């Protein structure tokens, strides 16, 4: 669409040009609607420039080196260390050097318009965009507005922390210089991944995690990752909090509960996320700015039949792949409602995000890796499900011992014994990420255990763990 054809009226207006917003708009356009994305930063969003892609690029070089060092024959050939500048340069290539030219070209090829600037809801089906020069443009939506503005890193209310200008995930994934030492406050995925990456690159890393590592996952996941970090040389402090932070001429000083002090070149705040919803006009529709935006399972905001919230900003699941999953459902249901078609909003229907509650897969790219999907044993019990948890040492699987000398890992399958279907799975060990999707399919498909016996894993691969877990559950139980 050339400049002369630009319009201020669209079927769909999307606030936020990250992967979620792009997918909502794309599905709508594929369904025959017109759409425009409003974005104040880089098209492609957090994932492309400050999260998924740069963080995994930083981690991959260390993973590849470690893999070579743990196989006899190749380990003797590996004599050097990571080239920090080469790792950073490879990371930069995956962010397109923080240029969104390619993403903008994709929008154009997909038939999606772009408005650069900050968007606010200023009326029913109305968004006002303010560009960098202060000029305003009013957009009207014939059918829907979708909020896909994402989330921001939380700076916890620790004395002096904000004044110490801590790194968040953004600075950690885009740094161009390696800090001599690094303190990380938090024990979640960002904390353990950045601890893994930076210690591999050569920083002296300390992790301060009051509640331990990877809370919300199976307990053995956090325990094994803590052990892995310590083996790498990370100073892991759990069960202790941070009292204050002070930045001086030579770095930061972190005071712990009890008075002990830790000094570091930089400090990362990795204690969670908050919705990016504070200045987008939520008050116009009767919602409180700065809060997670509640939706129904079709991602529509109750009380406004034209308003949707998709991705991180709704607080359902803060993962890029789940946001894109929501976006596909939201884009399709916006089309259906615009065209007067039936809405498939039954569980597992085309227009709902059922998997957000039942089958969320996630990989933590630490050393060892953690791959999980569905419910933990504790979550299943809390939900009132009669469960049996089956554990197996991954190192006993032939494919694992071939893959890496001294392979160490653990797997757990959580089975609903009333229905004899898998409701959760967790894998911890080198390169276990590729095991997760099979478990996801089993959970989403509600495949009976009796049928899973006929899904024969190839030998000798790490996937043979499925056979061992089924044997642990017991053929007589199926």
From TrEMBL:
This is NAD(P)/FAD-dependent oxidoreductase.
């Amino acid at each position: 669409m050339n400049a002369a054809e630009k319009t201020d009226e669209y079927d769909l207006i999307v606030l936020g040009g990250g992967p979620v917003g792009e997918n909502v708009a794309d599905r709508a356009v594929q369904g025959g609607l017109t759409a425009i994305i409003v974005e104040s930063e880089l098209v492609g969003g957090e994932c492309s420039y400050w999260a998924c892609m740069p963080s995994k690029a930083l981690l991959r070089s260390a993973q590849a080196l470690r893999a070579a060092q743990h196989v006899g024959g190749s380990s003797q050939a590996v004599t050097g260390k990571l080239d920090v500048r080469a790792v950073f340069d490879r990371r930069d290539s995956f962010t397109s050097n923080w240029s969104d030219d390619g993403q903008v070209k994709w929008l154009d090829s997909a038939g999606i318009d772009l408005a650069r600037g900050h968007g606010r809801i200023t009326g029913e089906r109305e968004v006002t965009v303010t560009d960098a020069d202060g000029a305003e443009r009013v957009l009207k939506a014939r059918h829907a507005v979708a909020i896909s503005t994402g989330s921001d890193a939380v700076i916890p209310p620790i004395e002096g922390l904000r004044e110490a200008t801590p790194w968040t995930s953004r600075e950690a994934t885009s740094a161009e210089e390696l800090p001599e030492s690094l303190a990380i406050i938090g024990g979640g995925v960002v904390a353990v991944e950045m601890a893994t990456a930076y210690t591999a690159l050569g920083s002296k890393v300390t992790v301060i995690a009051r509640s331990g590592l990877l809370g919300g996952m199976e307990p053995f996941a956090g325990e094994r990752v803590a052990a892995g970090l310590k083996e790498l040389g990370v100073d892991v402090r759990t069960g202790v909090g941070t009292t204050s932070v002070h930045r001086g001429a030579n770095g930061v000083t972190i005071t712990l509960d009890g008075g002990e002090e830790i000094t570091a070149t930089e400090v990362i705040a990795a204690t969670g996320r908050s919705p990016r919803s504070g200045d987008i006009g939520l008050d116009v529709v009767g919602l409180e700015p700065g809060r997670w935006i509640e939706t129904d399972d079709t991602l529509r905001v109750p009380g406004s039949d034209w308003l949707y919230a998709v991705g991180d900003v709704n607080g359902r699941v803060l993962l890029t792949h789940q946001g894109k999953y929501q976006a596909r459902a939201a884009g399709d249901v916006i089309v259906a409602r615009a065209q007067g078609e039936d809405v498939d909003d039954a569980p597992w229907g085309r227009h709902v995000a059922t998997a957000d509650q039942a089958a969320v897969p996630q990989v933590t790219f630490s050393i060892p890796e953690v791959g999980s999907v569905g419910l933990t044993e504790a979550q299943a019990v809390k939900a009132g499900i009669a469960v049996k948890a089956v554990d197996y040492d991954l190192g006993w699987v032939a494919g694992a011992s071939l893959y890496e000398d001294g392979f160490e890992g653990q797997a757990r399958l959580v089975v609903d014994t009333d229905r004899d279907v898998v409701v959760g799975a967790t894998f911890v060990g080198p390169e276990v990420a590729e095991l997760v999707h099979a478990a996801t399919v089993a959970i989403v498909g509600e495949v009976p255990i009796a049928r899973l016996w006929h899904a024969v894993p190839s030998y000798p691969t790490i996937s043979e763990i499925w056979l061992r877990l089924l044997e642990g559950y017991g053929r007589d139980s199926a």
